[in-house]
Amino acid sequence: MNLKQKAAEKAVEAIQDGMKVGLGTGSTAFWAIQKIGERVAQGLHIQAVATSQASEDQARELGIPIIPFDQIGRLDVTIDGADEVNEQLVLVKGGGGALLREKIVESNSDRLIIIVDESKDVKVLGAFPLPVEVVPFASEWTLEALRGTGCKAEWRMKDGERFLTDNGNYIADCRYGTIENPQELEIRLNQIPGVVDNGLFINMADQVIIARANGQIDVRNK
């Protein structure tokens, strides 16, 4: 069992019968959805929403009941991965391209559990490029404004074309090297016209589960 799978299976222990559950996106959340599917097959009754089309498709294949957003109400818990997490539980997310939907779902969850392997546990954020979701209209102006915040910003590409989110927007990957003040940067980025949202998740995670190569699982609580 790989580290991501270990962290995911630990997190899924928190899901109880009757809960409303948010399903994250990405290579670590994949394993959580797999384990939830196993538990549903064994008789667990939950209702779920997904943060991306890929996660929704996976959930449906596993028999996890997906409920329309206008019918599910507030969620009990969401389980998701992260690209970086620091000791204050500030996250960088969006490597899977679903940062906006993740932020919407996780803002409407009573509890957010983040699952990572030890490579994502950092002292200072910024080694991983910070994803920023940008509307296509006049996007080059938005990209220049992002560069004005002190980063090297480039469009995320896929198959030779600009990567499109499930919302039909672009992702600019912004390389800062280090992010010393995430709170200040989040505000500054979201004030740029054309920016939909960014991959800094501040004061959102309630628990981070970190799987380490030595077999240890660390749990960091808010």
In short:
The protein has 222 residues and is of the alpha/beta class. Helix content is 29%, strand content 26%. It has helices spanning 3-12, 27-41, 53-61, 69-72, 99-107, 139-147, 182-190; strands spanning 20-23, 47-50, 77-81, 84-85, 91-92, 112-117, 130-134, 152-155, 157-158, 161-162, 170-175, 195-198, 200-201, 207-211, 217-221.
Give a description of the structure.
Its EC number is 5.3.1.6. Pfam families: Rib_5-P_isom_A (PF06026). This is Ribose-5-phosphate isomerase A. With 222 residues, this protein is α/β, with parallel strands linked by helices. 29% of the residues lie in helices and 26% in strands. It has a 6-stranded mixed beta sheet, sandwiched between helices. Strand 9 (157-158) and strand 10 (161-162) form a beta hairpin. The relative contact order is 0.17.
